[in-house]
Write a structure and sequence with these properties.
This is Pilus assembly protein PilP. It holds the Pfam family PilP. The radius of gyration is 39 Å and the shape is elongated. With about 180 residues, the protein is of the alpha+beta class. The strands form 2 sheets. The protein has a 5-stranded antiparallel beta sheet with strand order 4-5-6-7-8, with no helix packed on it. A 3-stranded antiparallel beta sheet has the order 1-2-3, with no helix packed on it. It has a domain of about 70 residues: SH3 type barrels (Roll).
Length: about 180
């Protein structure tokens, strides 16, 4: 038991010698920090230099985003804009979809008027007449038959400008047949 008492006494003396005389100052500094008002840190926003616009001087040169063979042979040649679609008219609901996404599910004849029933990808059925627009290429219904509708699309190519192509949306196969020449 004497040894145990001696060990405890030595440990106590050793711990007493490890005391730091500056612990009181550390406690005071920590107390000041705790008393300081909190809140979000101050955010410093760097100053952005004023933007100086540059003039683009290469509009007469070949577009770097088009292949060479798609560029006009004569850059001064202008297109006939008579086939350009009317960008001011309101968009019809089925113009948001590609023709491949639309299905002709039926046609109706009401007197002299033909109506096409077309299903959109969400399953909603729309009734359209001749003159209505559908598809993303400014397609307009030219003719409605008992098993198909004929659509005139207007497409723009860098080489030919605006041109019209006819596409048929059929009832039996629910597919499109392109009756116009290829887009090449």
């Amino acid at each position: 038991m004497g040894r145990l008492l001696c060990g405890v006494l030595l440990a106590g003396i050793g711990l007493y010698g490890c005391g730091d005389p500056q612990l009181g100052q550390l406690d005071q500094r920590m107390q000041k920090i705790r008393e300081m008002p909190g809140g979000p840190p101050r955010i410093v926003i760097p100053v952005v230099p004023e933007y100086q616009p540059l003039e683009y001087r290469n509009e007469a040169l070949r577009s770097p985003f088009l292949p060479r063979k798609a560029i006009l042979s004569d850059p001064d040649e202008s297109f006939d804009d008579r086939l350009a679609p009317n960008q001011q008219r309101p968009e019809e609901p089925l113009e948001r979809y590609l023709l491949q996404e639309l299905r002709l599910v039926g046609t109706l004849r009401m007197g002299s008027r033909h109506v096409a029933l077309i299903t959109a990808p969400g399953g909603e059925v729309f009734s359209l007449s001749e003159g209505n627009y559908l598809g993303t290429h400014h397609g307009r219904i030219k003719q409605i038959d008992s098993n198909a509708i004929l659509i005139a699309e207007r497409v723009f190519t860098q080489h030919d400008g605006w041109r019209e192509r006819e596409v048929e949306l059929m009832l039996e196969t629910n597919a499109m047949n392109n009756n116009a020449e290829d887009d090449q």
